[in-house]
Amino acid sequence: MSLPATARGVKPWFRRPLGLPLWYPHPVDYVVLEREFAEPLTPDDVPRMATETQCLELYRVEPVCSYLMPDGKRLVCVFRAPDAEALRAIARVNGFPPDSAVWSSTLHTP
């Protein structure tokens, strides 16, 4: 069986809605993670934290950008992920506090 040209190279390891062919690409959402810290972070801490986070590839999560608040006690990170639950699973594996907020979002450009 040959796949349509648009499906060549697409890996079939994603979840797909019932009734769709195996090669149908699963949509990816923007997911936001918000964490608060007791001790302030420095701008140098953010890239280090990103490289130490485990299981991003396993759950098909890709970091997009991070925003550190001026006081250094709150960090907001944006990821591309299949859904918010993928990021919640990564948070559990990495020992993030249970009060870390995770939600799906959409991107609106001017």
Question: What brief labels describe this structure?
Answer:
110 residues, alpha+beta, Alpha-Beta Plaits, four-stranded antiparallel β-sheet, 2 helices
Shape annotation: globular
Strand order, largest beta sheet:
2-3-1-4
> How much helicity do the residues have?
10-25%
Structural class: alpha+beta
CATH superfamily: Ribosomal protein S6/Translation elongation factor EF1B
Radius of gyration: 17 Å
How far the N terminus sits from the C terminus, by CA atoms, comes to: 43 Å
Which regions are unreliable across 5 or more consecutive residues at pLDDT < 50? 1-18
Portion of residues in beta strands equals 25-35%
- What profile does the largest beta sheet have? 4 strands, antiparallel
In the CATH hierarchy, the architecture is 2-Layer Sandwich
User: What count of helical segments does DSSP give?
Assistant: 2
CATH fold group: Alpha-Beta Plaits
What is the top-level CATH class? Answer: Alpha Beta
* Number of structural units classed as domains: 1
Q: Taking all residues together, what is the mean pLDDT?
A: 80
Element-by-element helix/strand order:
EHEEHE
Query: What is the β-strand count?
Result: 4
